[in-house]
Amino acid sequence: MSNPATISTNVAVDAVKDDLQLSTERGPRPKPFFTTNRIILYSILVVACLYYLFPLYVMIVTSFKTMPEIRFGNIFAPPVEFTGEAWAKAWASACTGLTCQGLSPGFWNSVKILIPSVIVSTSVAAVNGYALVNWRFKGSEIFFSILIFGSFIPYQVMIYPLVIITRELNIFGSIWAVILVHMVFGMPILTLLFRNYFASLPVELFKAARVDGAGFWRIFFEIMLPMSLPIIVVALILQVTGIWNDFLFGVVFAGTQNYPMTVQLNNIVNSAQGSPEYNVNMAATILTGLVPLVIYFISGRLFVRGIAAGAVKG
Amino acid sequence: MQTSVSIRDLSLNFGHVKVLEHLNLDIKDGEFLVLLGPSGCGKSTLLNCIAGLLDLSDGEIHISGKNVTWKEPKDRGIGMVFQSYALYPQMSVERNLSFGLRVAGMKKEEVDKRIARAAEMLQIEPLLKRKPANLSGGQRQRVAIGRALVRDVDVFLFDEPLSNLDAKLRADLRVEIKRLHHRLKNTMIYVTHDQVEAMTLADRIAIMKGGVIQQLDNPHAIYNKPVNLFVAGFIGSPSMNFIDGTLAGRVVKADGIDVPVDRYDFAPETGNFSGDIVLGIRPEHVMVGEAAASQPVQFESELEIIEPMGSDTIGWTSFAGQTFKFRCDSEVPLEEGQKLRLGFDPARASMFDAQSSERI
Amino acid sequence: MTQAPPSDTARRKSGFARAIEHMFTRNIPAKIAATPMVTTVLVVFIGCTIWTIWYSFTGSRLLPSNEFVGLAQYERLFSTSRWNVSVRNLLFYGAFSLVFTLSIGFLLAVLMDQKIRFESAFRTIMLYPFALSFIVTGLVWQWIMNPTLGLQGTLRNMGWESFTFDWIARGDMVLYALLIAGLWQGTGFVMVLMLAGLRSIDDEIWKAARVDGIPAWRTYLFIVLPMMRGVFVTAVVLVGAGIVRLYDLVVALTNGGPGISSEVPAKYVYDYMFTAGNIGQGLAASTMMLVSVIIIIVPWAYLEFGGRGKNQ
User: How far apart are the two ends of chain C, measured CA to CA in Å?
Assistant: First the structure.
């Protein structure tokens, strides 16, 4: 019994009985490195990736060219004369139809809108989710259901009354109107996110805190919030990209002076007078896409989790 | 008897982790073999290797005299039943049973015949038109067994098939699987972590730990002559009492108490062992009160805790300064704190080398 | 003893009063905390929607007015060729976008599920456009599709004289241009959704199918695909909601042109409300958008929530 695994006694005898041709099979199944299926599989994936990468490549290459080179008519070619002039112009002096300050004011407007919007919408939604899970009151579920179904109503339906409301509140045409609207329209998805997250936490934790005599806000700040870092990160990713990429609310509520970057970008490209400067346009486009792209590449898996979490209803 | 499944020198690594190492196992035709062990011991992995669902790192697998090491699962002559039933949820029971056969291009009459036979055997005829979602757990597992049955194969593989069922259903279906085996007389390999399932179903049990088969024998031998401490502790409920002691000659000394073991059946190769040992006594082999009088080893001890189980009672005492359980009929009057006379027969006990944990 | 009954009723009364009091004072912090949600639901999602529907029956022009005109705005809406073109465009774009997004998304997910190398690199590449705004998407593709200096011009300069890719400038093809840009932005997202769906399927189902000898493609088609119903429904709802809202992409890529051949309802609403100064017309158009969403959502909600009750 020195090695309990060695039990079979007549291995050799059985092996002889086997079909001779087959008895060479041993170990892992042989896997050729290239099979036709694998080649087709990777080819399709690579072609798909070319489609996805092509615009990014074109944007970058075009933004570093000079206009004469662009007029030569080869969007594939890398820049012969590598220049950052278009970038400088896009940032500081491109004309949006009204002014010629480039994208920079739009960038700062976007930042000014982004930070309070993200903070306000995320905190409100976190409290909502917490109240919905742990402090249900009569009708709370009904309000939540309407909130979720409300997220399917096209913005265009609610946008004009909201203009009237913000005008009455005396904030129309300021970034505060945009912040309010982002809070309102970010609420369904973020509340859902936080509600599902808090519901997944053990309820005993909440009960224990209540037995210890903690109240609504104490439990929220000292027990729930410290545990919800992962979902907060997901919510932040979702909101930062969503709010940065917004066009409609910016153009309606912000007022000309406060247009966010997306609106400024569209104005630079689509309502500029004179002959279009494609290199400036592409530099401006990259600049506008840079913030969400950076978030995307940094957050990686969390971004995927965020959109998957945002997509799964109930 | 003809060998049905034969595993030769099988190794499996996941990266650098060695899950199974140089494992050999021969299963006779018509045998019911149970792979038993705690979770993570490699028993399910081994079953998946036999099924062809996992690629081996080394070694060979032969089924019904053919080397199937590189064969696809469908070509191995196996049917498999899973823990989660793995029924195709969008298909009726009938389609679940027939899907594989029809994909293989079998004639309709033959398919119908096989389904009728399987349905009759498992008493699922009234369920054939239903969807899995509308079946109970027990019914689902019958259908899953049926899906293996219609394949008309030599070897059935069961991967913890009863683990998702409640206790009562598990007992019912256990008997039914045994009945099925009597009727079909196929080779069956059954993975479980439940020792009751293993003891009741198996012709032979292979107890596994850390990817190695610890003991392969019939249930009687596994229970009475465990080859090492692990097997001894794993089988039996409540588990075996282990008493540390020293063996010198034919006497075990434990905390000043002498236990004569001259009637103990020593393993031939360790006949004159001496040194530190662990003495294992099953709680159900301990006699209480007057019955203790007939036992070669007797002692008195205070009863600390009583656990009445209904059919019998487990008492917690101590022997040689170590915790000692016994099991007796629930009719025996017991009281906590009472002094009890206990006795056992070392001939029915097991002894293990304290260093190597092997039986001596 | 004789004084007991009155004191008893008094006690009961005070108990009742306490219950009433309790109803309002219970959970006070929770109710305060939920004020923003309750306000949003009542004022925005319910109030604003009703306001819009109501005023779509008025003759509001530059400012909302209460002059009731019945269905006049809707009659005018459906006799306006720009609106009819918008609706037709949206139906066309929506049908193609839905079919292609879902099928390409599923196909890519299946390919990604084949234990491939560099999976996360492939996923990163396919998903990054989803992080970009529709404005950015539209402007990039506008440049690529530029007939003289974009892809067409480049390939012609390279010697492929007959190459044509001028969809953006042709009324009959511009919707396909929109589609290419839209698919570029959105398919990666659906792929990720579907991949998550594929990965959530019980491993033992795959094992059972292999033991049964069912080829992989049949397993995907007949076993896995039906099991992913929930993911598909989610994807349809999300993609569908996005299609109805389609606005930014059109503004950036074509601005509705050439002519009115790529106009969409959301743009019609915006233009009438904020540029043309015809609020009533914009509100009627937005109400029609709401109606179309309800037509999509109600059957889904019925299947998802009504059907569940039936199963149990």
Answer: 56
> Based on the domain organization, do A68 and A208 belong to the same domain?
no
- Beta pairing partners, B190: B34, B158
- What one-character-per-residue DSSP string does C80-101 give? -HHHHHHHHHHHHHHHHHHHHH
Q: Tokens 């104005």 belong to which residue?
A: A267
Q: Which long-range contacts (CB under 8 A, 24 or more apart) does B14-21 make?
A: B18/B211, B19/B45, B19/B211, B20/B45, B20/B46, B20/B49, B20/B211, B21/A5, B21/B211, B21/B212
Domain span at A238: 104-310
Provide the domain count of chain A.
2
Rounded Cα distance, A2 and A195, in Å: 58
Q: Point out the residue among C214, C227, C311 whose CB comes nearest to the CB of B100.
A: C214
Report field, pTM of the whole predicted structure over 0.80: yes
Residue A97 counted as domain residue = no
Inspect the interface and report whether the beta carbons of C122 and A45 lie closer than 8 Å. Answer: yes
Residues A35 and A125 in one domain: no
Residue A41 and residue A182 share a domain: no
pLDDT class of C4 with cuts at 50, 70, 90: very low
Give this complex's ipTM.
Answer: 0.86
End-of-domain residue from the set A23, A52, A86: A86
Same domain, A51 and A126: no
CB B303 within 8 A of CB B316: yes
Asked if residue A48 belongs to a domain, the reply is yes
Cα gap A59→B207, rounded to integer Å: 64
Q: Greatest CA span in chain A, whole angstroms? A: 95
Q: Which residue has the higher pLDDT, A96 or A144?
A: A144
Query: What pLDDT, in 10s, does the model give residues A177-213?
Result: 999 999 999 999 899 889 988 988 888 988 999 898 8
Asked whether residue A91 is domain-assigned, the answer is: no
State how beta strands B17-28 and B187-192 pair.
Answer: unpaired
Cα separation, B119 vs B134, whole angstroms: 17
Q: Would you call B86 and C227 a contact, using CB atoms and an 8 Å cutoff?
A: no
CATH number for the domain spanning A122: value is 1.10.3720.10
- Please report whether residue A96 resides in a domain: no
What residues have CB less than 8 Å from A251, skipping those under 6 apart?
A259, A263
Nearest residue in chain C measured CA to CA from A147: C41
Whether A270 and A142 share a structural domain: yes
A282 shares a domain with A139: yes
Joined together, the tokens standing for residue C55 give 């005023």
Q: Could you give the strand order of the β-sheet that contains B17-28, starting from the edge strand earlier in sequence?
A: B17-28, B3-14, B58-63, B66-67
Tell me which chains share at least 3 CB pairs under 8 Å with chain C: A, B
Q: What is the CATH number of domain C81-311?
A: 1.10.3720.10
Q: What is the DSSP letter of C116?
A: -
Phi, psi of A15 (to 5 degrees): -60, -35
Structure tokens at B35: 């792979």
Amino acid in the structure at residue C273: M
Running DSSP on this structure, what letter comes out for residue A139? T
Tell me how close the Cα of B239 comes to any Cα of chain C, in angstroms: 33
Residue in chain C nearest B53 by alpha carbon: C207
What whole-number distance in Å separates Cα of residue C154 and Cα of residue C161? Answer: 10
Shortest Cα–Cα distance, B289 to chain C (Å): 53
pLDDT in tens, C127-146: 999 999 999 999 999 999 98
State the Cα–Cα distance between residues B9 and B24, nearest whole angstrom: 5
d(CA B70, CA B72): 7
What does the pLDDT average to over C59-74? 86
Q: Which of A41, A160, A196 is the best mutation test for C, with the most CBs of C within 10 A?
A: A160
pLDDT digits (tens, 9 = 90+) for A224-276: 999 888 889 888 988 998 999 999 999 999 988 899 999 999 998 887 677 78
Q: Which of C234, C163, C245 is nearest to C192 (CA)?
A: C234
The CB-side HSE value for A81 (13 A sphere, CA atoms) comes to: 9
Longest dimension (CA), chain B: 77
